[in-house]
Amino acid sequence: MPETSDDESTSSEMMKCVSCKEEYDAEDAGTCRECYEEASETEEELKREIEELKSKVNFLRFWPPIDSRPHRSTSPCFTDVLLVAVDVDSGHPLANSAPVPANKAVLASRSPVFRAMLETEMEESLSGTIKLSDVSYDALRAFVNYLYTAEACLDDDMACNLIILADKYEVKHLKTYCEKFLISKLVLESSLISYLFAHQHNANNLLDAALSLILDNMDKISKREEYIELVDKDPRLVVEIYEAYLSKQVNTAVSSSHDDKVFLD
Amino acid sequence: MPETSDDESTSSEMMKCVSCKEEYDAEDAGTCRECYEEASETEEELKREIEELKSKVNFLRFWPPIDSRPHRSTSPCFTDVLLVAVDVDSGHPLANSAPVPANKAVLASRSPVFRAMLETEMEESLSGTIKLSDVSYDALRAFVNYLYTAEACLDDDMACNLIILADKYEVKHLKTYCEKFLISKLVLESSLISYLFAHQHNANNLLDAALSLILDNMDKISKREEYIELVDKDPRLVVEIYEAYLSKQVNTAVSSSHDDKVFLD
């Protein structure tokens, strides 16, 4: 093919990307063809693994007993325990709420706290009813739903409510799930409130994310109303923030003096 | 940096792969840097997704009631049904077997056949005991284990036994899992037996894989002892193989005559 020899000598200087089909030169060089093909295979393998895991999740997921889809509403689900949202003072069920049916086996396998309640001869195990205070009916339903499906429909309020429940009943997976949601919505304005909330409910991922945002904006934060309120309400927590701030400043100073040294060497 | 200009003019002809660090020319060009970086990000995202799915699987997985790990052997698991491997003729439990405890909710959520048994007023639902014939005690335990964990320790025998159970109790996920294992071990010598087995138990993935191997080796297959036995035992199945063979040949002929035409055009 003698006609193409011109093209070839040109393309030895400009390469054509097999992915975007644009030409590129040495400066913009990515991978050789072999590595590209290997990477494509890896990507295919990862995608196959994802499909397999998704089908495993679907297999392992339960339809919760309170599932309201029409064709299942009449099916019994062999539930053996009831969860009831009660008023913290009176101990009576909340108005407009109903007992949420569940399976002891599911509750015990998802939460060590439920397991302890149900395995020992505690009131809950004898009566077959678990009372939860400080929880709305909606949050209780979402909580039970998550224990069956590992899924929840979140907004800020629901995420906070579920973190409280996840902390109390030691459902780590749910806590991480809700923390991820709240971290993705973290803004400077709410960072102090998030920090306080995370502190109260041992949400360490959210705590770290909120603290990092606060430390990057100490000058703005210290003028905010929530800051003044927090100093009043929980000064120890404010001290913790300042300690982290100080420690960050020291570290920055050390590493920059270290950089200077390297530069001088 | 005037010193590097020489290097640049060289590297405009030979690129350096950012992955394997080897030089390459236009002929072996893969991607530009931008596409490489994009692909790397995609890979990272896929890996993160895999980690999340794995943690979801861990959360949703149950420890089966027959779990034999020492620290759990005494924990009750709120089981409410027993599975018993029985002799197909006498209906009595197999020797050296024991009832396998399980949860109705788990069985019903994994198998529509169990669901139907347990939800209606059938013998199984009333007695709380499900009898399974044609199954060894080991296979029964592995079966129940899979319903709780989506995992099984397979060899050829166990994979076949579990496919039989998966077919009978309509546990698709388990069938696919075992088929994958058997397909990975498929060889010409056993392809006819696998084909027959897959046909009997509606294992369509295994059926397709075995058939494809058979069709590629029809001359060798038709001389094998299993072939002669199969003609004797189930000639209709052999006809199906020949029909597939014929159809493959016709398709090949059509597409090659099509290629010829394109070539002539």
UniProtKB/TrEMBL annotation, chains A, B:
CDD domains assigned to the protein according to its UniProt record, in alphabetical order: BACK, BTB_POZ_ZBTB_KLHL-like
UniProt-recorded name of the protein: BTB domain-containing protein
BTB domain mapped to chain residues: 79-156
InterPro entries: BTB/POZ_dom (IPR000210), SKP1/BTB/POZ_sf (IPR011333)
Metabolic or biological pathway: Protein modification; protein ubiquitination
Domain of life: Eukaryota
